Amino acid sequence: MANTKSAEKRTRQNERRRLRNRSIKTRLRTLEKNLQATIAGGKKDEAATALKDFSSAYDKAVKGGVIRKQTANRKKSRLAVRVNTVK
Fold it and tell me: What is the largest CA-CA distance in the chain?
């Protein structure tokens, strides 16, 4: 239990941020799964479009401080390589 008004406010802020971060991370995981399914299906055009959406979402998450820049770059790079190998 918070002892001061500022501690109560901090608790409210942390809860709002936790919920926002959780929803963003869930969306990122969903986009990644959809992209991997598209790659596995061998649909090159759809995979390229999905990669664009995926990259955009990760960049926005980095801008909002939800994930680290290096993590986003690593994931984007690895999936871009996989998209380029689709026939």
Answer: 61
Give pTM, 2 decimals: 0.87
What CATH topology corresponds to 5-84?
Answer: Methane Monooxygenase Hydroxylase; Chain G, domain 1 (1.20.58)
CA 17 to chain CA centroid, nearest Å: 15
Residue pLDDT, tens place only, 42-71: 999 999 999 999 999 999 999 999 999 999
Using alpha carbons, select from 4, 83, 82 the residue that is nearest to residue 48.
83
Which residues in 33-67 are b (16+ Cβ under 10 Å) and which e?
eebeebbeeeeeebbeebbeebbebbeebbeeebb
Nearest by Cα to 78 from 35, 42, 44: 35
